[in-house]
């Protein structure tokens, strides 16, 4: 044993320098799990054998030390040796080759030493086909591990961290601070004056998103036809989910900060101490795009389709892991090789080469007659199919996803299957226009058939319906990847379309508290395939057979009214939403918040791309800031309200130059006393961003945000009076517009908009100004100061007046109740809409602050504006006959927004057929622009809607609300739901002899009851009616088995039902109204109700009702009073005052009619009994509850009593006769029991036998007719079914289907369970035979 021990000790000393170094190296490896780069360095070193190097530039840069330039960037094209240069630098910058330096120049942990000076302290090699190397967290951990190996101070700081905390790190900023910033700050304090460390990051361009890589390839090879490159599925959305449909789709916009490696450098790494310097290698066009590898057949296709280097075991499972087969790959073992039991692709330039040869009609490989064992080489007849690779990987992962779910399968299985299911564009049946096929490999031909694509689609459906797999993938954080893959499908199956629709709308809700199966049962139609899979997975025995009201199965376009109208929800986490903007291609959504943050989401994948945190560089006060506001542009005529030229620029008409004019007193560029130009706004370039003269600060509230028409820039205006313009591709600030409104003294920027031509950028200010800037240079063009108070909104016309080539318009609205209209270019005010202008304006103008204005895209001269008073004005501009350069404002329609709400947002549909308005209480209303009738109204928010934006195709609407959410609505689904709730009544429209639509947009079931010996279920319903803007209250009776409406019992005007109950014999229905009791005869069709309250002397409102064995016994609660009446004889039986100390909320009567139980706000359940001398109160008091009681119920035999409320539990008691010695004391201890027995009543006790958790609180409960089940409805929409026959009843089934608070639970005579909720949905559940 001594020999091996010495050998191990010697190996540890040789490789690590000693046991101590080996110990901390092992601890760092376990703590940080760094990536390994040994394969990259070794292969690059072998490739550089014989190379002669000149390092003068690098050595000169290193010699400058910390005082020199911080970054050295090596820029070159694809395949020109950037990574080889990086490897050579890591190897110590040898003069010749790298092979000799592979071991000699590498220290114990990868540190490279040359001339006794540390050159590279840590390095990272980015690889486009290894997703691990693109994740910022993995990059940070790998760099930290390398630094800890060479820097004792860093190592000491990292080894003190809690491993569990490090393992749970998910936020990039937190990981950066913990693993890099703080340890290096500690090193910086102890470092010598000239000491420095260098971090090397290679191939930043390989982290570009695939879509941008393909676009860059198109730029690199301009001769390629765009149609050929369009075969990439990543560039398109399906017709079912695309937000960009039109005859001339715009080019794809860059993904905001889509390069994670570049974002890590620009956002975080540059914040490290100044002694930390960087070497970067990249293409010159990094962050603009790179080429995407397309296709290679079978093994070659699998390797290029893989998202990570594949293990040989997986290749062997699909029959492609044979070494002889691997040796036939083109360029083996240089371009393809095996290391660490994984198959690697050497360099991204291989993918570029394959795609380039394909695009230009070249071929790769050898003739089909090649000799056995010959390697593939360039030649005729060789093509390849990337879809084949996706199919092979997807099929194998589908077969082996159980029992073990690997991380690769969770992340990439669905994307692989999606790529394998889609038919290539052009209908060639192959791998797309850019395809490379191998002659003699017959598998590709089989895959091209529709049957093979059908097999891939069947596997995709199987995976999407596997609830266990989907839950595991979502828990692992890959839900957004699945949504993104499904969103890119051009052809959908029923399952994939349903899965995409559901996941986009509800993925944000799926988590530990709301599992996937529960969420699907709540939010998908019963007839959907997803719903059926969720039912099978849940194992629940109760099936939802009927939904009331029944929605149409499908409408025009296949939209079921049962689907939610919200298609996706985007959250501004922990911050109030103030503004939203859609990119021109409608694929990205930017959300501005009150917390100085801009959240950017991928619309299709519903995935947060990044969070921009604008940092403000504040310049010192300038003289021009003191001059702002000194020369207002109002003329004398404008002061008295008459039309004027608005201070027009000299030079006149629309066709003049867009630049700032010079000369004349009305020039928008003012001059100070020394004659220097005093521009309205100043642009600060990105180079001045870190100027030490500027202080640190923030943009403040992001009140306005807008994309430029080409999508390359994004402007954001903040509460600090600043506008920042971002470069979309990099996410960096391109320029900052300073001096708006005298900076902070003049208030913030409320709204920003780009002109449709993209030349101008307008900003509305709190300081009653509108600032017009040149969008390219940032220089101020003009200041519009015709408003007297804050300007809250502005809008450009999307279509020019007088057809193509005509002028564009700008409309502004403010708190002075005025709308000003300007001509873009010469900036003359051409029209004005204001209150108090006589017959022309008068009542047509606004009488409250104007909060939104929008132009009709289809009619350039038509627009709409809204105000805080809830008024909407639709107006048209017509040229004045006396002055062609002036316009008259004619109000076409005076509309009202949602009832009792200020209208805070407006938006026209792209085709001009609908006008959407949003209220300050979260309601959205759609008007038909042809008839100006309400087309739909819905409410998914609870607070003020800040902005409404239509998608480019007009099929979707995004609403941004102060409740920190932006919701994407499918307008076809909205209209389908609206049509399903439409009722035609002449009374509601106020038109004699005809009907107009009355839209029921909000139902709320407040109580329900089932007929004891029939098929009827009665419910009280609150309905909001758009036509009147008020709530109506109704009673509906439905058939339990079919859901069909049987009757609508009439309710006298001014009354509304609070609770409803059937008599014990089922012949009468009793409705409790405010101070009234109405009795309906079932046999007479529920007509002509009898008001029995006058005969029994009722003086109090009803809070709860319960019926005994016959209608003669009716118990109802009013405040703290229990009243027992005989409704047939119309007389009072008993009145028990003050049975509770506070409000009574629940009451129930035993089956024999001798006991009544009540529960109330005093947190007690009280039992009252009937004796020979009448009713006595409080025979027993069950206390110990911590919150209000909302439900009580007796079992049919009277042996059990259940009670529950807001303390999140159900307590079940069993009655025991005292003469029999009571019940067993086993089980949980009951709450405090205070019996008050009546001498004439049989003695009995109530003992707690079971306590069941009912989170989040109980609303109602009921026993089944035979006493086998107890149903409990909860606040969160869950329905619990307990086994009442057990000695200690427990939950046997949990029913999911309600998405809101359950307000009523009852069992029908047939054993069906009926439940209703506040969203107006009533569901009927039954057990299969």
Automatic annotation (TrEMBL):
PROSITE patterns: WD_REPEATS_2, WD_REPEATS_REGION. Gene3D superfamilies: YVTN repeat-like/Quinoprotein amine dehydrogenase. Residues 618-695, 1218-1241 are annotated as: Disordered. Pfam families: NPHP3_N, WD40. WD repeats lie at residues 695-736, 843-877, 938-972, 1137-1167, 1182-1213, 1295-1329. Transmembrane segments: none annotated. PANTHER family: WD REPEAT-CONTAINING PROTEIN POP1. This is Nephrocystin 3-like N-terminal domain-containing protein. It comes from Gonium pectorale.
